[in-house]
Amino acid sequence: MKPVRVALLGCGTVGSEVVRLLHEQAGDLTARIGAPVEIAGIAVRRLGRDRGDLPVDPALLTTDALGLVKRDDVDVVVEVVGGIEPARTWLVEALKAGKSVVTANKALLAEDGGTLHDAATEGGADLYYEASVAGAIPLLRPLRESLHGDTITRVTGIVNGTTNYILSSMDATGASFSDALEEATALGYAEADPTADVEGFDAAAKAAILASLAFHSRVSAADVHREGITEVTAADVASAKAMGCTIKLLCIAARIDDSVSVRVHPAMIPRTHPLASVGDAFNAVFVEAAAAGQLMFYGRGAGGAPTASAVLGDIVAVSRNRLAGVRAASESRYADLPIRPMGEAVTRYHISLDVADRAGVLAAVAGVFAKHDVSIATVRQSGRGDEAILVIVTHAAPDAALTATVRELQQLDIVRSIASVLRVEGIEAT
Amino acid sequence: MKPVRVALLGCGTVGSEVVRLLHEQAGDLTARIGAPVEIAGIAVRRLGRDRGDLPVDPALLTTDALGLVKRDDVDVVVEVVGGIEPARTWLVEALKAGKSVVTANKALLAEDGGTLHDAATEGGADLYYEASVAGAIPLLRPLRESLHGDTITRVTGIVNGTTNYILSSMDATGASFSDALEEATALGYAEADPTADVEGFDAAAKAAILASLAFHSRVSAADVHREGITEVTAADVASAKAMGCTIKLLCIAARIDDSVSVRVHPAMIPRTHPLASVGDAFNAVFVEAAAAGQLMFYGRGAGGAPTASAVLGDIVAVSRNRLAGVRAASESRYADLPIRPMGEAVTRYHISLDVADRAGVLAAVAGVFAKHDVSIATVRQSGRGDEAILVIVTHAAPDAALTATVRELQQLDIVRSIASVLRVEGIEAT
User: pLDDT tier at B387 (50, 70, 90 boundaries)?
Assistant: First the structure.
C-alpha cells in the first residue's frame, strides 16, 4: 500500500511529540488509515541542535521549509511552528497545490484564516486545525460536524491554561496577581514574557476560531473585545468568593439576533457552574445549542503530548480522506454575520464601592443606575467606621450602559473609591 | 439540486423532534449539506394517533416500515424506535441495499452491533449512531475520529440520567433509594418500570458501545459486568460523604494489557473528580488517553430535543458523504481483544464494618485482608457503646480478591454486620 507522506514543519515540543507518536503508533496508524504514514522531511530552524533520542533519520531534517512543502512526494503538510509568516506562505503554497494541511497555528487562523480557507478551496485540499484551540480536547470537529444539525447560540470557554493556573492559584491562596504570576513562571506554566497569555491575546485568537466555527461566519482576532487579567486583584477574588463565585478568564462568543458578539475578559461565575471547577492549567469549553442544550468539553489545553494527540487525529483524518479521494467538509461559511460592538454585548456587573456611611447614599447610587436604565439585582451594604461598602450586582444590561454607570459612579463625591468591577457570567446556565 | 430523501422509522418523542428540526432548520441544513433534506416517509405504529402540530404531510405516514425502507427513493434511514426486532431487520435491509443508516438504538448496537457493521460493509453504507450514547453529547465521533491518533486507556462515564438523578437526590437530601426513585418517577425522570435504568442494563449497553469504539474491538452487552443501584443505601451515601466522596453509577471500560475490562456498578468517587459535579439527569464521559491525557465530555444524555440534535448531526454527515460519493470511516475494528473477567478487574473497596469493640478486632480483620493479599490504605475506627465501626479503604487489588475478603469478613464472629461495601474509583485521576 502506497504510504501517506508527511512533511513536518517545526520540531520543538509539539513537533518532536508528533514524530514520537508517528513512530510508536506506526502499526495502529496503518490499521486506522489503511496505509502507513511516512515522514518525508522535517523543517527545522537549525540543523545542529541536539534532538536527543528523536526516532528519525537525521537526513530527513532540512532548514528549507518551503522547498520541503513544494516536493512532489509530500501529501500532507503538518505545521507546528506558529506565527503569521513564514507559516502563511508555506501553508498557502501547500493548500493551493492540493496538499492536505494540519496546523496548530491559532495566531494565523485567527488573524487571516480566510486566506487559508480560500487556498484550501482553490486547491481542493483539506485544512484541519483541531490542535489550535484547547489542545487535546476534541472540540472543533464536534462543533463543525456533530452539531451541524443544531444551532449553537453561545460558546463560553476557558481556553488559556496559563491564566487559568494563575486565577486558580489566586482563588486557592488569596495571592496577588503578581505573586501568582511569579509562581506560574517558576513552575513553567507562564512564559518569560507572559503578555500573550495574561493580556488575553492567546484567548482572543481562540475565541475568533471558535466563533467562526460555531456561527459559520468569519470572525478574526481583531473582532474580539479583549481584556486581560493583570488588573484582577486579591480583593476581586475575595469579593467573588463572598458571592459564591470564582473568577475565570472567559472567552464568550454569542449569536445575538443576526450578529455575533465575541469577547475575552475576566468574569465571576457561580461555583456551581460546570466551568467553575476547571482548575489549574486545564481548559474547558461550554457550548449552548438550541436542541442539544448545554454541553461541556474538558481537557488539557496545551503541552507537547496533548497537542500532538490532536495533530495525530487530524493526520489520520486527512490521510483517510486522501486515500478515499475526497475532501472533508470545508469551511462551513454561509452566514456572514456582522460583529456586534462590545457596548451592545449584554452582561451583568458586580460592583463593589467604598462609600461614605451616611443617609441618602444608597438612593444616590441607585439613581445613577436608574439613569442608565440598569436594573439592580442585589445590594449588600456593610458598615465599617465612617464608611460603608456597597456591593451591587446588576441584572443583564448592555455593556455600554454598565460602563457609563461605573464612570458616573466614580464622579459621585459620596463614592470614595470603586474597589472592584467585574462582569458576572453563567448565572442563567446553572 | 437533488434532495437527500430520508425515511424516518418511529415518530415518538425523538422522532417528532427530528421532524420539527428538519422543518425549522431546512434552510441551514441545505446550506450545510449542499442539498435539501426531504422526508420520504415516516413509519409509525398507528396512523390514527393525534400528532399535534407536527409539520408534515399526513400522507407521509405509513405502518409499513419495511416497505418504506425498501423504497428506491430513500437514501437515508433514520431509526428511533429502539429494541432488537424488528429494528434489526429494517436496518440490515437498508444497509445491505447501500442506504445510509442513522440510529439511536443502543440496545441493538450493544447486543448485535456486529451484524449491523457487517451489513454496512457489505452494502458499502454509512452507519452512524451518535445518539445511542449520552444523547446530545458529541462523543462517539470524537472517540472514533479525533482521538484515533492516540491510544485510549480508560473510559469512565455517567451514562444513565435516571440513576444519576436518583443518586444526586440521595446525596443532596439523604433520602433512601426507594424514596428517591419515587420522586424521580413522579417527576418523569424514571419510567413506570425502572428496571432497565436502576439495574444498569441501559448503562451496560452504552458501556459496550463505548468500549468497542475506544478499543477498536467488538464488545457486546453480555461482556459487561453489571450491578445496579437498588442496593445503595442512605448509609452508603453518608459513608461516601464522610470520605469526601459521592456515589455515582459508573460505566468503566479499561484496556489492561491486551484485554478489555468493562463494568457498570455504583462507586464512590472523590468530590474533586470532574465527574463528581455531574448532577441531576446530566451525563458525562471521562476519557483517559496516552497522549491527550484526561478529557471530559458533558451534556444532556436524554430527552427529545438533545437526542434529535445528535440524530440531525448524523443526518448531515451521512448526507454530505452521499453527495461526495464516499463512505465514512467504517467500524475501526482491528484489535479483537479478549474480555477480562470481573474478578481480574483492578479496583479499590470501601468497607464499613460493625464490629465488637474489644482488643484484637483490628488484628483479626487486618489478617483477613492480608490473607487475600489485599493491602489496606486507610482504617478509621470509632467506638459506639460495646461495638465499634471500622471503615477500611483498600489499595487497588483484583476484584476477586476483594470479594473473597468481604466474604470471609462476613464469617468472622467479631464482625456483627457489614454496613457498606462500595468500590472506589477515580482516586488516581485527581
Answer: confident
CB B108, CB B133: distance < 8 Å: no
> Is the predicted pLDDT of residue B430 greater than 50, yes or no?
no
Binding-site positions of B for NADPH read 106
Q: Please give the Cα distance from A409 to A394 (Å, whole number).
A: 14
Evaluate whether A80 touches A43 at the Cβ level (below 8 Å): no
**Is the Cβ of B114 closer than 8 Å to some Cβ of chain A?**
no
- Once rounded to an integer, what is the mean pLDDT over residues B382-386? 75
* Domain with residues B4-134+304-324, CATH architecture: 3-Layer(aba) Sandwich (3.40)
Q: Say if residues B252 and B262 touch (Cβ distance below 8 Å).
A: yes
Mean pLDDT of chain A: 91
Question: What ipTM describes this predicted complex?
Answer: 0.83
Q: Which residues sit opposite B380 in a β-bridge?
A: B391
Backbone CA torsion sign across A149, A155, A158, A160:
positive
Q: CA A143, B253, A140: angle at the middle one, nearest 5?
A: 10
pLDDT tens-digit readout, A327-355? 766 556 667 889 999 999 999 999 999 99
The β-bridge relationship of strands B376-384 and A293-300 is unpaired
Answer whether the bond into residue B86 is a cis peptide, omega within 30°: yes
Task: Look up residue A338 and give its amino acid.
Answer: P
Q: Which residues of A172-204 are buried (b: 16+ CB within 10 A; e: fewer)?
A: eeebebeebbebbeeeebbeeebebbbbbbbbb
User: Do B343-424 and B140-300 fall under one CATH topology?
Assistant: no
CA distance B361 to A199: 61
d(CA B180, CA B162): 10
Residues of B acting as catalytic residues: 206
The class of domain A140-300 in CATH terms is alpha beta
Summarised one tens digit per residue, pLDDT across range A241-283 is: 988 999 999 999 999 888 999 999 999 999 888 899 898 889 9
Tell me which DSSP letter residue B337 carries: P
Which H or E run includes A52?
none
pLDDT tens digits for B241-252? 988 999 999 999
- Do residues B36 and B6 lie in contact, with contact meaning Cβ atoms separated by under 8 Å? no
Residues 187-246 of A with CB under 8 A from B: 216
∠ Cα A36 A40 A41 (to 5°): 140
Domain regions of chain B by residue span: 4-134+304-324, 140-300, 343-424
Grid cell in block for residue B287? 476519557
The answer to whether the Cβ–Cβ distance between A292 and B136 falls below 8 Å is yes
d(CA A92, CA A237): 45
Q: Which H helix or E strand runs over B49?
A: none
The whole-angstrom separation of Cα B53 and Cα B179 is: 37
Q: Which CATH number fits domain A4-135+304-324: 3.80.10.10, 3.40.50.720, 3.40.50.970, 2.30.110.10?
A: 3.40.50.720
Classify the C-alpha dihedral A240-A241-A247-A253 as positive or negative.
negative
Residues of B in contact with A295 (CB under 8 A): 136-138, 297-300
Rg of chain B on CA atoms, in Å: 24
| Contacts across the A-B interface (CB distance below 8 Å) | 189
CA atoms within 13 A on the CB side of A378: 7
Spatial contact of A203 and A253, defined as CB atoms under 8 Å apart: no
Name the CATH superfamily housing domain B343-424: ACT domain (3.30.70.260)
